[in-house]
Amino acid sequence: APHPLIMLASALETAKPGDRLIVVGVGDGGDAILLEVGENIGEVRKAPRRGVKGYLETMKPLKNYDDYIRFRNLLGKQRFTRKTSTVTYWRDRKEILPLKGVRCKSCGAVQYPIVRVCYECGSKDNFDEVRLAKRGTIFTFTLDHLVGGDYYATPVPRVVVELEGGGRVFVDMTDCNPEEVKVGMPVELTFRIIHESEGFYQYYWKARPVREKVEVK
Ligand SMILES: [Zn+2]
Questions:
Q1: Of 13, 116, 151, 155, which residue is the least packed, with the fewest Cβ within 10 Å?
Q2: 132-136, 163-167, 183-187, 213-217: range with lowest mean pLDDT
Q3: Residues 31, 122: one domain?
Q4: 160 C-alpha to center of ligand 1: Å?
Q5: Is residue 54 part of a domain?
Q6: What is the 111 CA–ligand 1 centroid distance (Å)?
Q7: Structural domain boundaries enclosing 108
């Protein structure tokens, strides 16, 4: 469903003021939207973001069709009955979507997830909320051969990331060869679907290697 909008975002990456763009969605009926690119498009593009082109250039092609079938859930079969909780998602909303942690007002230690007592100095309810950086380095990791859920290709690297500016997160690693994972390796966080249940998609962060352009064949 988001495909036409991703195509639009891609077109806007190279559009000039005055260009006209038509977004057409066809399927069960059709919609067409005619847009004219405004003069501020250059300003908008100054914000640091990778864009559709950047993601295509840094993606890692899948090794085999099995992985594709799994990612797209084409077999419609899961090894586990998934339960999902919109309640916990709501409760943890600060930590999940904007990746917020806390910084201790006494000692400055950045902590994640959000806690009430500082692990460093013991001061209580004395924090500022902070948005954590989406980049860091691998502090430690394990290669999990027994991971459950929708993972069929193992091992899955599970990593503790030391984030730039402080704070550590424990996440799964994706878009990588397990053999390339090393302590100290630079990674970035990427927001991914973890699982789906009863029409609700659970998202969370994963880590991927910081990759400059790779050749896509
Ligand atoms: Zn403290």
A1: 116
A2: 213-217
A3: no
A4: 21
A5: no
A6: 9
A7: 100-132
pLDDT at 100 over 70: yes
SS (H, E, C) 116-147: CECCCCCCECCEEEEECCCEEEEEEEEEECCC
Residue with tokens 């909780």: 85
- The whole-number pLDDT of residue 149 equals 62
Q: Is residue 25 part of a domain?
A: yes
Q: How many domains does the chain have?
A: 3
When pLDDT is averaged across residues 64-80 and rounded to a whole number, the result is: 74
pLDDT at 163: 97
Q: Is the pLDDT of residue 147 over 80?
A: no
Q: Is residue 27 part of a domain?
A: yes
**Residue 83 to residue 194: CA distance in whole angstroms:** 12
Centre of ligand 1 from the C-alpha of residue 105, in Å: 7
